[in-house]
Structure prediction request, 318 residues.
Amino acid sequence: MVAIDTTAAAAHPAAAGRLRLSPQAQGMAALLVTVAIWAAFALSARALSASSLLPADAALLRFGVPLVVLAPALWRRRHRIAAVRPGAAIKIVCGAGVPFFLAAMHGGALTSAAFVGSIVPGMVPLFVSALMIARGRTVPRGTQAAGLVLIAAGVAALVWRYVVPVDTDVLAGSGILLVASGLWALYTVGLKEVDLDPVGSIGLLCLPSFAVIGLLVLTGVLPTGLAHAAGSDIATFLVVQGLGVGLCAGLLYAFAIRRLGAERSSVVGSLSPVAVVLLAIPVLGESPTPAVLVGVPLITTGVVLANRRPRHKVPADA
Prediction:
């Protein structure tokens, strides 16, 4: 929806033809760009296994690049970042930090880009609803409940053909991606609980995440091949993970959360699976399997329904 600022137009005739996006439209625009970036993230999660980079290397780029680019702005916000409540900070750092990143990368290596793009964002509404119910919110009903059921059915459709005969790699990867989706739901809810602008939210996420991944690399817990990696791989992941996911998507998603709320923002999952499946064909040479052709539409439809707000009935005598 587009809102026209008539007051400003009257005061400045030259601006009479200009349109100002409403807060809701701004949030949806941010989500659409985020969809494209997340699709690239899903593709890179699958492509990592065939690159000269290791998961720790991709994580260093993911969390390190935003810190370098935003260093002056983060320094000005250091007191507000330090004042965030521990509970909310843990949700953000665990939900989108090192645990989420390594789970998404490892799960993608065991499955496909379609699985990453479908399960991780697609299951977020279900996990967000579960978190809301745990906090005392009402149980979803009607179309919202039907949407959550379709999401679960879509995920089941994706993995059913790997149950008989059992494909342990794909099933294990799918389980890891479910964990990643649950973590991202935690991040989505945590963003709503902090009084930080998008830049501050990125700092709260990236500072401890970069410190943790750096410590794991320095102590040898996680191996690194960054020094010997191909320059093209470093450039690709720097753009996609560092600038794209780490900086642009972080700013836009945090902005959308504040404009639309945590539950409505998870509607991004309704478009992300489709974008990933379509892009994986030319980029990675992945052909959609029958399970993907059934599961992705179910997840997409489910996310749309799960994010529909129930209409309140108007009394007849109103």
Summary: The beta strands are 2-3, 20-21. Residues 257 and 265 are 6 Å apart (CA to CA). The first strand starts at residue 2 and ends at 3.
